[in-house]
Amino acid sequence: MTTRSTIMDTNSFRAEHADALRPEIRQLTDKRDRILGESYRLFYRNPVHLVKGKGQYLWDAEGRKYLDVYNNVASIGHCHPAVVEAVSQQMQQLNTHTRYLHENILNYTESILATTPAEIDRAIYMCTGSEANDLAIRVAKSFSGGTGIIVTQEAYHGTSELTSGASPALGSGQALAPTTRVVPAPDFYRLTPSDPGQWFAHEIQKQIDDMKQNDIKFAGFLADSIFSSDGVLPNPPGFLKAAIEVVHKNGGIFIADEVQPGFARTGDTFWGFARHGVVPDIITTGKPMGNGIPVSALFAKSDVLASFSDHIPYFNTFGGNPVSMAAAQAVLKVIQEENLQGHSRVMGALLLTELRRLQQKYRCVGDVRGAGLFIGFELVTDPESKQPNKALALDLIERLRDQGILTSVAGPYGNVLKLRPPLAFQAADIDWLVGGLDRALQQLCP
Amino acid sequence: MTTRSTIMDTNSFRAEHADALRPEIRQLTDKRDRILGESYRLFYRNPVHLVKGKGQYLWDAEGRKYLDVYNNVASIGHCHPAVVEAVSQQMQQLNTHTRYLHENILNYTESILATTPAEIDRAIYMCTGSEANDLAIRVAKSFSGGTGIIVTQEAYHGTSELTSGASPALGSGQALAPTTRVVPAPDFYRLTPSDPGQWFAHEIQKQIDDMKQNDIKFAGFLADSIFSSDGVLPNPPGFLKAAIEVVHKNGGIFIADEVQPGFARTGDTFWGFARHGVVPDIITTGKPMGNGIPVSALFAKSDVLASFSDHIPYFNTFGGNPVSMAAAQAVLKVIQEENLQGHSRVMGALLLTELRRLQQKYRCVGDVRGAGLFIGFELVTDPESKQPNKALALDLIERLRDQGILTSVAGPYGNVLKLRPPLAFQAADIDWLVGGLDRALQQLCP
Asked: What GO molecular function annotation could you give as one example from this UniProt entry (chains A, B) (predicted)?
C-alpha cells in the first residue's frame, strides 16, 4: 500500500495539470476518469503507459525503458518464461476447482510447507492477500474466542471490510473496527528504547490490557515483519520475539502477513518472520506467490485452523486451481534453483552500501535500512531533527520517474522511498538507481 | 455453493469407506486430509481425479471421459483456445497493476459496459465474486447510511467475513451478521401466491420493517436473480420488479449478484437480472468472467459508487491487470461472436423439454425449471406432497457420476440437481445426460 495521501496528492496535481499531458496519455487518463470507479489512482503526475516487461525492466508505449524498483508482484521478474510456460501448459490441460482431485495443489503444498516451520502443516488457497488475511482474522477469532486484533500504526492488510477495519493506512475515511487496537510502528530511527524487543512487547501488552478494560477479548496480532506500510522497518532482527511471547501468553495468535516480506525477498531467510526467530500460528501470503497470477494462501498450525474448519465451511472457487498452483510451483522452483534468496541478500547488501554513500553525501537522507532487496530510504529536513520531508520524497519519485526509475513512497509521513525491485535486479542496475538518486538529490538537496 | 450438508455427507461416507477406493485415489485423498485445511471437501463418495478438459468434457487419470453438467467457471468451455491464447500472449508482454496506464482495462470496460443498462457506467475489478460482493455491501452501506442487508433463505454470496455473514447457505456454524435479514426463497413450486411479485415485494417490506423496529437502517437487497443456492428458481420472469421498487422506495440499493446467472448463461438475456426487467444499482460478477482466470468485477451507477469512492480508498493489486482483462475480453468476444447466448437459450429449451419427459415418466421428479443452460431438477417423494427427497438426489448424482456425468445438488433441502454445463454444451450431450438420468431413475425411482 502506497501512502494514500501521496496518491491523492498526485491525482489532484494531475487533474490540475491535465493539459500538460501528452495527448495519448491524456486520452487514457480521461477514459479512466470516465468509466472506472473513482477509487482508481495513478502513480505520477505524468503517468506511465506501460506496454512491455522483462525481468527488472519495463517499457512504455514510446519504447522508453524503465528500471522497476517497486513491484514485488513480478517477484522473480516480469514475464518470467518459466511462469508463462507453466501457466500456458496447464491452461491447455485443465483448470478447475478443488472438489475434484488434482496433483498440483498437493505437490505445491508439499513444496511450500517444506519452507515453513514444522508446526505450520496445513494450507488453504485463495486469490488475494486480502482474502488470506480476512480468513486469518476469522480463524484467530475462532481459535481465541475473542475479537480483538492488534496491528501497527500505519499497517495495511487488505481491501475487504474485515481487513480494511484492521488497516489504519487507509486513512480516516475508513473507520477501524471497534475491536482493532493500534501499536506504534517499531520506528527505531526515531524511537531509541534501550531494549527494542521489550519496548515493543510492552506496547502490545498495553493494548491487550486496554482491550480487557473494554470487554474485548484478545484474538491476535497481525503484522508483516518488514512493516512495509509503516515505512520499511526491518531492524533489529529478533526484536519481534518478545512481542510474540506476550501475544501467546495472552491467548492470542500471531498472524505473519508475508505478502510483503515473503518468498526470499528479505535475503537472509525465505520468510520475513524467520529473521526474528519466531514461529507464527498463521502465515498469509499473496502478491509475490504467483508472479502476477492471482494466487494467495494461508498456512497454519493444524490445531489453530481446526478451530475454524471444524464448524465453518470455506470454499474459494478459484483458490488452489491447477493453473494457479502451476504458477506458484514455477515461482518457487525458480527461487530455489536460481538461489534468488542468496541473490537478494547479496544484491541488497551491495545496494544498501551504495545508498549509504548517498546518505553520507546528502543531509536530507535521514536513514537507509533494509533486508535483502527491500529497502527504505528516508527523506528528512535534516538529520538532527529527523523531521520527515514528504515534499522532497514526492519530488524525488517524480524526478526518478523522469530518469526511467520507477518506485514509490511509504510510511506514515509519506517520506520513505520503498525500494523493492523484482528479484531479477542486478549489480548493473544499482548504478542506474543510485546514479539517478544522486543526480536528483544534487538538485533537490544541494 | 453446493449445499453444505451434501458435501459433509459425502465426506463422512468417504471417510468410512476409504478402503474401497482405488489405491491411486486413496493416496491423493489421504494426502489432502493430511496437508490441506479441513475445509477442503471433495465431490462424490468415489472422488474424480481429473487431468484434462476440453469444451464440455473432462477426462480422468484413467482416460475416462466425463460430461460436465456443473461448472460455470469454464463458462465458454474448458481450456478454450481463445482464452489460453489471450492469456499466454499477454503474459509474455506485460502483467502489472493498475497504477500505471494500460489499454486492456479500458477496452474491456467499454466492451462490458455496452452490455449493461446505461445507468451502470463505472467499473472496478477484483479477483473473486466474494471480493466483489464484499465491496458491494460496503458501497451499499456508504450510499444508504445504513447497515441492514436482505438476502434469501439459502443465499450464498461469498467467503469473506462480511459476505459469509450474508450467506445463510453456509449453515449454522457460520453466524449471520446481526444486520442481515432473510426473506423466504421465491420457491413457486411450493408456494403459490396469486401474485408472486407482490408476495415477494411484501416479504422484502416485512424485513425492512423488522429492521426499523430494531434500529437497523436498511442498506440494500443482495440476490442472484436465478436463486441458485435456493434451488434454481428463475420463474416467473419479472417477479423481482415489485421487490426492487420496494427496495428503492425504502432508500436501499439492489445488488445483482451475477456470479451465477451472468454472461449469457440464462439464454434470454446477457445478464440474469434483465429477465426481470429491473435495473440494479450494482452488478457483481465472478466465476464465468475469465473462464477460470481469477477475475471479478463490480459495475455500478456513478452516484452510488461515488458515495464510497469519495472517501474510502480501494486498491486490488491483481484486479484489472492486463492478463485478467485479456482473459475477460476473450471470453466476452467468444460469447458475442459465437452467439453463445442464443445457443444457451436454444440448448436450454431442448434440454428442458427432454427433462420434462422424465418428469412425466417418474413420479419422484417433482419439478423441472430453468433459464437457458441453468436448470433445476427437483427430486421429491411424490408429486402430491412435494416432500424433498435428498437421499434420492444424493444417490442420483453418484449414479450419474458412474455414468460419466458430473453435476451436484442445490437448495435448502439438497434435493435439486443443479444442471449448469459449460455453454459449449451441444444437442448430442442431451442424449448422454438425459439417457443417464433415465437409466439411474429407472433403478432409483421405478
From this structure: transaminase activity
